[in-house]
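Inputs:
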Amino acid sequence: MTASTTADLAQDVAAAVDQLRGITVQVRTHGAATGAGILWNGGESEGRGLVITNAHVVRGDRATIELGDGTAARGRVVARDLKRDLAALEFEPSSAMASSVVRDSPPLRVGELVIAIGHPGGLVGAAALGIIHGVENGREGRTPRWIRADVRLAPGFSGGPLADATGRLVGVSTMMQGALALAVPTAAVEAWVRRSHAPVAP
Amino acid sequence: MSTVLQSLSTELADAVQSAGRAVVAIHARRRIPASGVHWRPGVVVATNHTISRDENISVTLPDGATAPASLAGRDPSTDLAVLKLAGQSLPAASLRPDTPPKVGELVIALGRPGPSLTASWGVVSRVDGPWRTWQGAEIDTLLRLDLAIYDGFSGGPLIDGAGRVLGINTSALARGVPVTIPVATVERAVTELLERGSIRRAYLGIGTQPVRVPESLVRKLELKVDVALLIVSVAPGGPADRDGWLLGDVLLELDGAAVTDPADILAKLGGDRVGRPLAARVIRGGQVKTLQVTPGERPTSRAA
């Protein structure tokens, strides 16, 4: 790589991180920062904001959602799935918000770049860059349970976005398995949101 | 128009995909499988420490099919093993033998600990000249990596951004620290293992430890160095034992060169030394004595 490629790369990473920070929220329960969340494109839940995070990030029914611009809103847990480790929160946004763009296709490739955003140790909007570690040969038509990524995450990344090089969302960072990051694939999140969240929405 | 970030992402995935076509899973131990690289047509390179049985070895190919493989040879000192794979139309790995990696070069370690390919990325953290493993093999280049190692890392290839293989990864040669055995060393080992089934190494049957020779003795014996190797074990019936070497001898020189580290002895014990006498100078009973020893062939056990 020439020096200018490296500089271009650095700029691209910074731009992608900036954009992703816009859809990443902080989740606080009882005043303590417990993890990250993603501004989800809620579709029919008009006028309301929808945040997807991990179930282990919001233990109670309520949580404070702090947006990238520093504004805070009260969030209400509208769905939770301990087995999938997912939770959905609704809140009243004070202004128009960004929302995530999900990558439906093409399928993930081993080796492609991924970016994670989270708030490890109170560091708001931290980024980590890595690659897809492995893609499970899932059975025909079934979504693999986890996305495995070679990216160094810490506890505060839980519930935050894992995105590809174009900034599109591919998963919800959920846990570490050794040095490996495991994320719930967005296809699984979408299916879950449709299944469990829609009936609750007004 | 795609950004540099997107191009990099695509290139990394392309490199993984093309190199992954020559990466197989090796089933030769109880635990999860380890990795191997289809190095030459019909020849798979793996790591010795991940092969715990000599028979009943099978490999999982990139297309998911399983095929039997036979062990052609193994060498603990380089931690390499060679398997033969018959009747498969698998592409051989594309190697990068001439340009050694540079410190800071972006690299990917591939593995196949089962049907699917895995990857971790990082940089080459150290490149140095030849080094000797604890069992005496000379590795042409020291390649240390800054990347995370996962199941299936050992026996997998280290590849560059173009998908070319830089060497075989192992976690067993440097106390769990990931190192890569460079292409040149693998090539030599593959050739010898295919020919003989093992890598011939000369052997003395002694264990040594560096010691400082007291200043008075250095002066009295007019020694050029004050560090030598105390012989702390002599294998019964081994070459040194047969030639009259004794526990407590202090080895000063072997084959005309001063020895101050056990690796200096290993450096004199290439496969071509077997059966060819070596001269040695030792301190025995306060006097310098000249001894001879005829190296034997190193047994396959883990003895030094």
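Chain B is about 15% helix and 40% strand. Flag for discussion at group meeting.
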